[in-house]
């Protein structure tokens, strides 16, 4: 009886191995065929983006579809951008689609360009290409690239430093704070003298922050923040959580 069980188990094992081998052999093979071809926007396209036209169409990205050999399945396309001349070493995603065209609003293009590390209110050279992939994680193919010029607008509030310790003193314009899209914080790296500072919005006093308790917590309309030693500083401001740090470099 034991031998019968052993024979049965061995037979089942052989059958399972055979089925697995058949599954591998019968699995559809998909290979790269023809890469997508980017058609528009062409090199030389230039646009200045603005908040007032955020919902308007900035441009329509079009391309010829990619082909793959073997059993066909869904092809996913990604519009990618990168700083011109970097060979897409660090590309950013603009949009995903299964179609071969995509209308981009001013707001969508602006967000993509800012997320790609481009500078607001300056004309930036932006490389554009299409990435195609079969299924979710299949074999990628890349299109040709065109270089366009995009001037984005800042999609965040304009906060700055003012005060006797700042380069411009209590005079306009404020010393601008740089916004980090990843951390959602503002920062300034540069000289401060002995004196005082405050944070304010849009170079005006309607919205400003100080620190009543000198406890690194922002208070609306609060007391001036003292700088007791001149030097090069890193100032980081978290407006959302009403916190800040000041560190001498």
Automatic annotation (TrEMBL):
InterPro entries: SusE. GO terms for cellular component: outer membrane. Residues 26-131 form the SusE outer membrane protein domain. GO terms for molecular function: starch binding. Gene3D superfamilies: 2.60.40.3620. It holds the Pfam family SusE. The keyword Iron does not apply. Residues 1-21 form the signal peptide. Keywords: Signal. The keyword Signal applies. This is SusF/SusE family outer membrane protein. It comes from Flavobacterium cupreum.
């Amino acid at each position: 009886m034991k031998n019968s069980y052993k024979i049965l188990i061995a037979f089942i094992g052989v059958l399972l191995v055979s089925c697995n081998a058949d599954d591998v052999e019968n699995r559809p093979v998909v290979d790269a065929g023809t890469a997508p071809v980017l058609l528009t926007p062409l090199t030389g396209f230039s646009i200045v983006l603005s908040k007032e036209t955020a919902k308007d169409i900035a441009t329509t990205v079009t391309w010829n579809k990619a082909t793959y050999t073997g059993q066909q399945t869904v092809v996913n396309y990604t519009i990618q951008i990168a700083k011109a001349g970097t060979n897409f070493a660090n590309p950013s995603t603009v949009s995903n689609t299964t179609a071969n065209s995509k209308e981009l609003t001013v707001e969508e293009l602006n967000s993509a360009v800012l997320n790609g590390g481009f500078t607001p209110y300056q004309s930036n050279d932006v490389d554009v290409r299409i990435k195609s992939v079969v299924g979710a994680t299949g074999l990628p193919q890349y299109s040709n690239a065109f270089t366009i010029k995009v001037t984005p607008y800042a999609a965040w509030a304009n906060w700055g430093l003012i005060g006797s310790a700042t380069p411009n003193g209590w005079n306009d314009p404020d010393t601008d704070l740089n916004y980090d899209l990843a951390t959602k914080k503002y920062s300034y790296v540069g000289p401060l003298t002995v004196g005082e500072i405050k944070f304010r919005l849009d170079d005006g006093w309607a919205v400003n922050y100080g620190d009543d308790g000198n406890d690194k917590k922002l208070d609306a309309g609060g007391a001036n923040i003292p700088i007791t030693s001149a030097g090069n500083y890193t100032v980081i401001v978290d407006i959302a959580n009403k916190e800040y740090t000041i560190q001498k470099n």
